[in-house]
Amino acid sequence: MLDATTPEHRPTHAPEDHPKIKAERVGILLANLGTPDAYTYWPMRRYLNEFLSDRRVIDYSPWKWQPLLQLVILSKRPFASGAAYKSIWNEEIGESPLMTITKAQTAKMQAALRERYGDQVMVDFCMRYGNPSTKSKVREMVDAGCRKILFFPLYPHYAGATSATANDQFFRALMEEKWQPTVRTVDPYFEHPLYIDALAQSIERAYGALDKRPDILVMSYHGMPKRYLMEGDPYHCQCQKTTRLVKERLGWDDTDITTTFQSVFGPEEWLKPYTVDHVADLAREGKTNIAVAAPAFSADCIETLEEINEEIKESFEEAGGKTFTYIPCLNDDDAHIKALSAVIEENMRGWLE
Asked: 27: which of 146, 152, 257, 320 fits an S-S bond (Cβ 3.0–4.6 Å)?
């Protein structure tokens, strides 16, 4: 068992000038997508440039994509995206909701894991894009004596543009370490029983607070180009399975729940049906009272608070919809923290008693 209470020490028989070694700990590094530092033009441009230059996100040839990105998209999009962020910004503490929620999740995870493992573990978070960077947090953990690091992308479902690029950045950070720690990365947890139960509980609470039961629940997942699915990305299948497992856990019929995909970008065909179009179709079919949940997001963010609760809601209402209920992400809900803690403990087997 690791003993994190042991002070810095020199190896046995080492000379006096040998550098001291930190007591060993296990680092648990949570990773989320990221957020701009502010919603003004230049912070937005830096954030979007990093995000949209990622070949995992946009895999077009750079010599074609970069001129379009730098000369056209990044001259206009920071204004539109900045306005969207401003509409949801946590002005009181000067950060996006994703940052606020991720900090709260991390604090609860620290408390839960400290209760079990004491000072043997160090829990922190990083962002794939923006701050705090993956590189900076890996450096902090290594400096703190973490000889083992469990890297946990907070995406229930695997996708090349989410889990894989987070892992890529983690391994890039490790390339700069003189003494690399032993590492593990966490598998997607889209079918973990505690995650499914946490989703089901959140839906039951939301439905229980309504005067009238919605006609249907729309499970809206972040989209991706259909081409990625055809090239072997498992994301689509994992999303469909989450919906099915939640439906079974709730004891619902097929007509009570449906799967859609949002956040379409660019000229390609993406995974269908598109949420923004499908909710309008539901309204025109007479389903004027709907609820929408976003199981692919571990924390509420621009795609849920602005896109779902504003743009998608507007599409529904313009088509004749009357009651639109957004069910928040699991965020720092206790059932969610319990599920994430269980995933961490399962992935640390053999590392700690």
From this structure: 146
